[in-house]
Request: fold
Amino acid sequence: DRDAKLEVGTVDVWEDCGKPETLLATNRYLLDKGGGQEIATDNSVLIPPVHIASSASIANSVVGPYVSVAEEVVIENSIISDCIIDRAAHIEHAILRQSLVGSETQVRGGVGTVELGDHSKVNLG
Reply:
């Protein structure tokens, strides 16, 4: 983004985000430091800290704590905690914890912990 502003700051912690567990730990750290953002939802509960992109849609779900949701994500009838959900993913009728969901990925049904790359499709039920 040409008009984006970059700020310099001192870091107290350095994590290797190449592993799923440290990526999730870093997400928790950043959300605890005030990186959260919430949006209006349809019949849902958001448990801070969370970061929800303004173009995401959340209905009949519980999201949080420690969840980051990117642009155009749809979450329906689900319970999501300690997860990073990338752009345009669609999650429905699922309970996810400590999961990474790639962009344009579909997750349906069931309970689980997943690490899904972009354009994946999984039915947990």
